[in-house]
Amino acid sequence: MNFGPVSRQDSLQLKGYRHACHVMIYAPSDEKLFGKIPIRYAVLMQLRFDGRLGFPGGFVDPADGSLEEGLNREVGEELGAGLALAESDHMCTHACSTPPQKLVTHFYTKKLSLAELQDIERGAVTAREHGKEVMGLVRVPLYTLRDGIGGLPAFLSNSFVGNARCQLVDALRSLQLVREPWLQLAIKHSHR
Protein backbone atom coordinates (compact mmCIF):
# COMPACT_ATOMS: atom_id res chain seq x y z
CA MET A 1 0.00 0.00 0.00
CA ASN A 2 1.33 3.43 -0.91
CA PHE A 3 0.31 6.09 1.58
CA GLY A 4 0.78 9.78 0.83
CA PRO A 5 0.41 12.73 3.19
CA VAL A 6 -2.82 14.70 3.06
CA SER A 7 -4.18 17.41 5.34
CA ARG A 8 -6.69 16.33 7.94
CA GLN A 9 -9.25 18.77 6.51
CA ASP A 10 -8.77 17.63 2.90
CA SER A 11 -9.00 13.97 3.95
CA LEU A 12 -12.47 14.54 5.39
CA GLN A 13 -13.66 15.69 1.94
CA LEU A 14 -12.52 12.50 0.14
CA LYS A 15 -15.37 10.35 -1.16
CA GLY A 16 -15.40 6.57 -0.96
CA TYR A 17 -12.57 6.30 1.61
CA ARG A 18 -12.66 4.50 4.95
CA HIS A 19 -11.04 6.32 7.87
CA ALA A 20 -8.91 4.68 10.55
CA CYS A 21 -7.49 6.41 13.63
CA HIS A 22 -4.60 5.12 15.73
CA VAL A 23 -2.60 6.46 18.65
CA MET A 24 0.96 6.08 19.88
CA ILE A 25 0.96 6.29 23.67
CA TYR A 26 4.34 7.11 25.20
CA ALA A 27 5.91 8.21 28.47
CA PRO A 28 9.34 9.38 29.64
CA SER A 29 11.15 6.67 31.61
CA ASP A 30 14.17 6.66 33.91
CA GLU A 31 14.26 2.86 33.80
CA LYS A 32 17.35 0.98 32.62
CA LEU A 33 17.60 -2.39 30.92
CA PHE A 34 19.93 -4.66 32.92
CA GLY A 35 20.66 -1.66 35.13
CA LYS A 36 22.72 0.08 32.43
CA ILE A 37 20.93 0.66 29.08
CA PRO A 38 18.66 3.74 29.35
CA ILE A 39 15.07 3.10 28.23
CA ARG A 40 14.39 6.90 27.92
CA TYR A 41 10.79 6.43 26.75
CA ALA A 42 8.16 3.71 26.98
CA VAL A 43 6.29 3.54 23.65
CA LEU A 44 3.29 1.21 23.29
CA MET A 45 2.27 -0.82 20.27
CA GLN A 46 0.14 -3.93 20.11
CA LEU A 47 0.30 -7.37 18.58
CA ARG A 48 -2.82 -7.70 16.46
CA PHE A 49 -5.03 -10.66 15.63
CA ASP A 50 -3.26 -11.03 12.25
CA GLY A 51 0.20 -11.37 13.82
CA ARG A 52 1.28 -7.87 12.79
CA LEU A 53 2.28 -4.94 14.95
CA GLY A 54 0.13 -1.83 15.01
CA PHE A 55 -1.12 0.94 17.25
CA PRO A 56 -4.30 0.98 19.33
CA GLY A 57 -7.28 2.25 17.34
CA GLY A 58 -9.20 1.22 14.27
CA PHE A 59 -11.90 2.15 11.81
CA VAL A 60 -14.20 5.04 12.61
CA ASP A 61 -17.51 5.88 10.97
CA PRO A 62 -19.92 8.82 10.78
CA ALA A 63 -21.95 7.37 13.68
CA ASP A 64 -18.94 8.08 15.92
CA GLY A 65 -19.53 11.83 15.54
CA SER A 66 -15.87 12.79 15.13
CA LEU A 67 -12.54 11.14 14.44
CA GLU A 68 -11.57 11.55 18.08
CA GLU A 69 -14.82 10.06 19.38
CA GLY A 70 -14.24 7.05 17.14
CA LEU A 71 -10.64 6.73 18.28
CA ASN A 72 -11.65 6.99 21.95
CA ARG A 73 -14.25 4.25 21.38
CA GLU A 74 -11.66 1.98 19.72
CA VAL A 75 -9.05 2.63 22.43
CA GLY A 76 -11.63 1.82 25.10
CA GLU A 77 -12.44 -1.50 23.39
CA GLU A 78 -8.79 -2.47 22.88
CA LEU A 79 -7.13 -1.12 26.02
CA GLY A 80 -10.02 -0.77 28.43
CA ALA A 81 -8.64 2.71 29.05
CA GLY A 82 -10.58 5.92 29.01
CA LEU A 83 -8.03 8.13 27.31
CA ALA A 84 -9.36 11.56 26.37
CA LEU A 85 -7.83 11.94 22.93
CA ALA A 86 -8.50 15.29 21.29
CA GLU A 87 -7.85 16.95 17.95
CA SER A 88 -4.78 18.57 19.55
CA ASP A 89 -3.23 15.07 19.81
CA HIS A 90 -3.43 14.63 16.00
CA MET A 91 -0.01 14.27 14.38
CA CYS A 92 -0.56 13.40 10.71
CA THR A 93 -2.92 12.01 8.08
CA HIS A 94 -2.14 9.80 5.09
CA ALA A 95 -4.30 8.48 2.27
CA CYS A 96 -4.00 5.41 0.06
CA SER A 97 -6.13 4.72 -3.01
CA THR A 98 -4.49 1.37 -3.83
CA PRO A 99 -6.78 -1.67 -3.68
CA PRO A 100 -8.11 -3.53 -1.76
CA GLN A 101 -9.71 -0.38 -0.33
CA LYS A 102 -9.38 3.39 -0.31
CA LEU A 103 -8.07 4.24 3.14
CA VAL A 104 -7.23 7.35 5.17
CA THR A 105 -5.15 6.90 8.32
CA HIS A 106 -5.18 9.53 11.06
CA PHE A 107 -2.33 9.24 13.54
CA TYR A 108 -2.28 10.66 17.05
CA THR A 109 0.31 10.74 19.82
CA LYS A 110 -0.39 10.99 23.54
CA LYS A 111 2.25 11.65 26.18
CA LEU A 112 1.48 10.26 29.63
CA SER A 113 3.39 9.76 32.84
CA LEU A 114 5.08 6.39 33.22
CA ALA A 115 2.62 5.49 36.01
CA GLU A 116 -0.35 6.25 33.71
CA LEU A 117 1.18 4.17 30.91
CA GLN A 118 1.78 1.27 33.31
CA ASP A 119 -1.87 1.48 34.43
CA ILE A 120 -2.90 1.10 30.78
CA GLU A 121 -0.62 -1.92 30.39
CA ARG A 122 -2.10 -3.58 33.49
CA GLY A 123 -5.69 -2.81 32.51
CA ALA A 124 -5.36 -3.91 28.87
CA VAL A 125 -5.66 -7.59 29.79
CA THR A 126 -9.24 -6.96 30.94
CA ALA A 127 -10.25 -4.99 27.83
CA ARG A 128 -13.15 -6.30 25.75
CA GLU A 129 -10.95 -7.10 22.71
CA HIS A 130 -7.99 -8.59 24.61
CA GLY A 131 -7.20 -12.04 23.26
CA LYS A 132 -9.41 -11.52 20.22
CA GLU A 133 -8.58 -8.40 18.22
CA VAL A 134 -5.55 -7.55 20.36
CA MET A 135 -3.14 -10.29 21.42
CA GLY A 136 -1.20 -8.03 23.79
CA LEU A 137 0.75 -4.83 24.20
CA VAL A 138 4.45 -4.49 23.48
CA ARG A 139 6.94 -1.75 24.25
CA VAL A 140 9.15 -0.51 21.46
CA PRO A 141 12.86 -0.82 22.38
CA LEU A 142 14.35 2.60 21.62
CA TYR A 143 17.97 1.50 22.05
CA THR A 144 20.38 -0.45 19.88
CA LEU A 145 22.45 -3.20 21.45
CA ARG A 146 26.21 -3.59 20.88
CA ASP A 147 25.69 -6.03 18.02
CA GLY A 148 24.04 -3.20 16.04
CA ILE A 149 20.92 -5.29 15.44
CA GLY A 150 19.27 -5.99 18.78
CA GLY A 151 16.74 -3.49 20.08
CA LEU A 152 15.18 -0.99 17.68
CA PRO A 153 16.75 -2.37 14.46
CA ALA A 154 15.37 -5.86 15.18
CA PHE A 155 11.99 -4.41 16.19
CA LEU A 156 11.73 -2.45 12.93
CA SER A 157 12.26 -5.65 10.95
CA ASN A 158 8.94 -7.08 12.23
CA SER A 159 5.76 -7.14 10.18
CA PHE A 160 3.64 -4.00 10.64
CA VAL A 161 0.09 -3.38 9.49
CA GLY A 162 -0.52 -0.67 6.87
CA ASN A 163 1.72 2.32 7.44
CA ALA A 164 2.31 1.69 11.19
CA ARG A 165 6.09 1.31 10.73
CA CYS A 166 6.30 4.69 8.96
CA GLN A 167 4.06 6.25 11.62
CA LEU A 168 6.35 4.91 14.33
CA VAL A 169 9.54 6.17 12.68
CA ASP A 170 7.99 9.58 11.90
CA ALA A 171 6.76 9.95 15.49
CA LEU A 172 10.12 8.95 16.97
CA ARG A 173 11.75 11.53 14.72
CA SER A 174 9.31 14.43 15.17
CA LEU A 175 8.94 13.95 18.93
CA GLN A 176 12.72 13.48 19.19
CA LEU A 177 12.39 10.29 21.20
CA VAL A 178 15.43 8.82 19.42
CA ARG A 179 18.41 10.87 18.23
CA GLU A 180 18.45 11.16 14.44
CA PRO A 181 21.83 9.42 13.84
CA TRP A 182 20.73 6.46 15.99
CA LEU A 183 17.37 6.32 14.22
CA GLN A 184 19.05 6.30 10.80
CA LEU A 185 21.35 3.45 11.86
CA ALA A 186 18.42 1.48 13.30
CA ILE A 187 16.51 1.87 10.03
CA LYS A 188 19.57 0.86 7.99
CA HIS A 189 20.29 -2.22 10.14
CA SER A 190 16.63 -3.28 10.19
CA HIS A 191 16.90 -4.17 6.49
CA ARG A 192 19.55 -6.85 7.07
From TrEMBL:
Catalysed reactions, semicolon-separated: IDP + H2O = IMP + phosphate + H(+); a 5'-end (N(7)-methyl 5'-triphosphoguanosine)-ribonucleoside in mRNA + H2O = N(7)-methyl-GDP + a 5'-end phospho-ribonucleoside in mRNA + 2 H(+); dIDP + H2O = dIMP + phosphate + H(+)
Record organism: Huso huso (Beluga)
Domain (Nudix hydrolase) ranges: 16-165
Membrane spanning stretches: none
Name this polypeptide is given: U8 snoRNA-decapping enzyme
Cited InterPro entries: NUDIX_hydrolase-like_dom_sf, NUDIX_hydrolase_dom, NudT16
Lineage summary: Eukaryota, Metazoa, Chordata, Craniata, Vertebrata
Family per record: Belongs to the Nudix hydrolase family. NUDT16 subfamily.
Location relative to the cell: Nucleus, Nucleolus; Nucleus, Nucleoplasm
Pfam families assigned: Nudt16-like (PF22327)
Keywords for this protein: Nucleotide metabolism, Nucleus, RNA-binding
EC category name: hydrolase
Cofactor(s) needed for function: Co(2+)
Main location: nucleus
EC number: 3.6.1.64
Keyword DNA-binding (UniProt): no
Source domain of life: Eukaryota
